[in-house]
């Protein structure tokens, strides 16, 4: 139904308008008793061999919703109905911010990809906390945190600590995001010394809590092998829980879309099918270099169960989806879980 009926309507709208329309539609319909029953029946798929325990948390299945879709924690309960094993909110910043000027989200249908330069648009961490207080589902929640655009890098630690403090009672794990290409100079924080300083500060604050939460680092796919070696060293030295590989890419060389059209879009990170190969390479490199000493959440170009299996076999413990769902619809989640369950059963 999605591809034949809903997708053509959504794709007539600009991507950001379609996103807001989808949010409104889900919010207004999913909690109607008949619709709720239908959604749960349509999308539910549970199997014991899908259950995972990773960094001390028990996941009902290894397929999560990546950060960026539900930045402000507006649809936690509704997204849980679609059968995700976990949902990552954010990226959240201490203060609300509008993000970059529109248009800032673009579809590349020929590549089943998106280009975005959203710029951490969100209502601020306090607003998200108020929504998290009211959630009803028991789905695992990750809190993806970042810095405000106007916060200089030398003060970035303060922003991450503010978000950690506010979200701590309401999320199950944290993700330190220093890898978005859409906030000026943010990726400079991926350099060895600034990154180590940031992670140590976040970990120290977390460790002082009565119930510390796992801390993960989200990295870019555009890092060199030398930079990935640094990541392995930093993760092991700071003793954070793991890595999310990867964020969007600034590399456009693999796109099939007319280069002049891509150039006309301007700056932004590319996500979707085109990212699959590189994100898998990064996962495999990190897994081998670290001797599997920390868990990895694989994200980038996952559309089918085969894509998810590829990430898991490369060394990921869990996977996340986002862009693929825009092209395939929510039934993709159940298909991936069924494919994974069959794969694990046949091993």
Topology:
Elements: H1 2-10, H2 15-29, H3 33-43, E1 52-54, E2 57-59, E3 63-65, H4 76-80, E4 86-92, E5 105-108, E6 113-116, H5 125-132, E7 140-145, H6 156-167, E8 173-177, H7 192-207, E9 215-219, H8 225-238, E10 242-245, H9 259-265, E11 269-272, H10 276-289, E12 296-299, H11 305-314, E13 318-321, H12 323-328, H13 331-346
Parallel strand pairs: 3-4, 3-13, 4-7, 7-8, 8-9, 9-10, 10-12, 12-13
Antiparallel strand pairs: 1-2, 5-6, 6-11
Helix pairs in contact: 6-7, 7-8, 8-10, 10-11, 11-13
Quick synopsis:
It contains 13 helices and 13 strands. With 347 residues, it is α/β, with parallel strands linked by helices. The strands form three sheets. Strands 3-4-7-8-9-10-12-13 form an eight-stranded parallel β-barrel, surrounded by five helices. A three-stranded antiparallel sheet has the order 5-6-11, with no helix packed on it. It has a two-stranded antiparallel ribbon with strand order 1-2.
């Amino acid at each position: 139904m999605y591809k034949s009926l809903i997708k053509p309507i959504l794709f007539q709208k600009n991507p950001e308008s379609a996103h807001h329309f989808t949010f409104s539609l889900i919010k207004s319909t999913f909690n109607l008793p008949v619709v709720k029953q239908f959604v749960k029946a349509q999308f539910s798929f549970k199997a014991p061999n899908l259950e995972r325990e990773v960094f001390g948390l028990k996941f009902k299945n290894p397929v999560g919703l990546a950060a960026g879709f539900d930045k402000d924690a507006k649809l936690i309960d509704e997204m849980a109905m679609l059968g995700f094993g976990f949902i990552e909110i954010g990226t959240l910043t201490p203060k609300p911010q509008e993000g970059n000027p529109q248009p800032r989200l673009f579809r590349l249908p020929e590549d089943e990809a998106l280009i975005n330069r959203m710029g951490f648009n969100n209502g601020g961490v306090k607003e998200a906390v108020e929504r998290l207080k009211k959630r009803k589902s028991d789905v695992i929640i990750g809190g993806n945190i970042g810095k405000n655009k106007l916060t200089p890098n030398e003060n970035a630690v303060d922003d991450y600590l503010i978000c950690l403090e506010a979200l701590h009672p309401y999320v199950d794990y944290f993700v330190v995001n220093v890898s978005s290409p859409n906030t000026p100079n943010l990726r400079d924080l991926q350099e060895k010394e600034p990154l180590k300083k940031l992670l140590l500060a976040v970990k120290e604050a977390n460790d002082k809590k009565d119930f510390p939460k796992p801390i993960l680092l989200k990295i870019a796919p555009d890092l060199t092998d030398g930079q990935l070696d640094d990541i392995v060293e930093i993760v092991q030295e700071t003793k954070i829980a793991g890595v999310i590989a990867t964020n969007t890419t600034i590399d456009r060389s693999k796109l099939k879309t007319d280069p002049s059209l891509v150039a006309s879009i301007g700056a932004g990170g590319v996500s979707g099918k085109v990212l699959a190969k590189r994100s898998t390479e990064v996962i495999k490199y990190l897994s081998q270099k670290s001797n599997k000493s920390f868990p990895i959440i694989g994200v980038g170009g996952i559309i089918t169960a085969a894509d998810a299996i590829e990430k898991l076999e490369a060394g990921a413990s869990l996977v996340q989806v986002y862009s693929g769902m825009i092209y395939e619809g929510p039934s993709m989640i159940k298909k991936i879980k069924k494919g994974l369950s069959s794969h694990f059963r046949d091993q």
